[in-house]
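Predict the structure of Protein NDNF.
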Amino acid sequence: LKMSWLWLYLPLHLLMATCLCHSIKAPTTSSQQSFKSNLFNFYHSLLLADGKETTIHLLKDIPKRYYFVLEEGRALAPFSITVTPCDVPIEWSILVYKPPPGKAAPGDHDTQEVSKSHKASSMVSTLFNYKGNSVETYMGMSSHSALYLLEFLSTERDTHITVYLTTDTTSGHLYPELPGDPRIDVIGIGPTTVTLAWKHSPSVLQHSEGIQYCLLVNEKHNYKSLCAAETAIRSSGMKLPPTVALSLSPYLLEPQQVMILSNSELSIINKVSSGEVRQVCMGTKNTYTVPNLSPSTQYYFDVFIVNLLTNASAAYTGTFARTLEEPEPKVTELKDGKVIHVVLDGKKQKFYSLQYQARHKKIHFTFQLCRGQIRVHITRNGKTVASENLSGLRYFSLKGKLLDTYSVQLRSTEESNSSVKVLASPHFHKPLFPLLPESLKIKSFSKLRTCRSVTIAWLGTQEESKYCVYRKRIEEDQIWRELQSADRCSGPESRHKSEKVLCKYFYDLNLQRAVTTETIKGLEAGTLYLFDVYLFGPSGIPVRYHSKVVKTRKKC
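Done. Here is the predicted structure for Protein NDNF.
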């Protein structure tokens, strides 16, 4: 048995290639059997790399073992081991095998064999063991040669972990450093926002380049590591690009993902069955307001400090918060025949409520969308009777009982300002808004374009109405803004007098022939013009056709 400790002094490549357990005599005691079993584990283990993060895949109920050697000659050699579970809790332990303190004298083999066997077995000890899913780091110190065995076991299901071993604890850290107080503070809560703050990582203060904070938001629970969060997202049935929060380099997004890049912040929104999972990387800022949350909903927030150069990360202590309830919108009373102009701020006020008490059995609601995107929801005595997104001019004719109470809720569906005109009236045969054609589009004829003129056409109705045409010279970079920001409820009073081209009356009882054309002359060659047509009904309230941009020919 004296020879059983020779493996501690063999070169590493011989250690891996030699199985000395076959040369050991058959054990005669339980301690010898345990010692042989422990030695056998080494010959079925893998060498753990020093100074590199290793990803290890574990099969359920099948242990996996790795080993490393601290060589003789290094006085008080320090080392550290960091294990990061990426899913379910695992069990892991560190065992150390040390040589006996002295060698037996020649000739003593027969008399001391049993005692030496017991002493050898007693030199196998467990340094550390842990069970759970937290990130754990073991720091040790060795003053002599030793061989260490790490054993990992998952009893719940197949999973993977990362392990980082280093024997150089003086030249920096693979993982970014957390502050002394790694908690995340909730400093503000609203119906749709939560504001967070956390203390700076020393790694950010020392090496700001290549280090950044990434925030994870979800409705399920906190995550103790970034790899655990990514594993959970993948298990929801979607593919997550590798190190999605760790790099701003381009990659393809899955259909369930939305990427938003604004103000140097990268946001990834993952649509999963349990709600949205958002990832936001905000550089080195240590405060952030999470926008666009749902009212009265509990969210979990995790902050990770990430080293973009090594893809290593460290997790702050996660927190959670419940958003406030959406305040009851102010209710405005609708009166017969009176138009109300409602303006919604997409960021502050997204809802607006109107109420109307019927004095007739038949009620007519009219909505003219002026700007943005708005959804209308109408209830009668608490029951939904209509709900849809508005477009242009929309009429709802409803039949109920006398003194029925109608509630109209308007909701902006975008962050920019939206506005709409609303009218409630029992007299549909006397509408304030004009009768509309099938389409409010303006058509231009390319073949009739010249350097100095443009011909346009639009549909009319069976009711004699007044139409006014306006033109405006614009530049290429103004087209999108002019078309998107146009207030479709504003009349010619908002236009400059020089932009007016003409006004005319027109109608045709045959809708197939209710089309009119107009040639606008006196234009400049190779120039962009914005054309608008306004339709006026009996009450004088205008309806604006969709603007049309036409460019005159450059050469004729």
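The domain at 442-551 is CATH 2.60.40.10 (Immunoglobulin-like).
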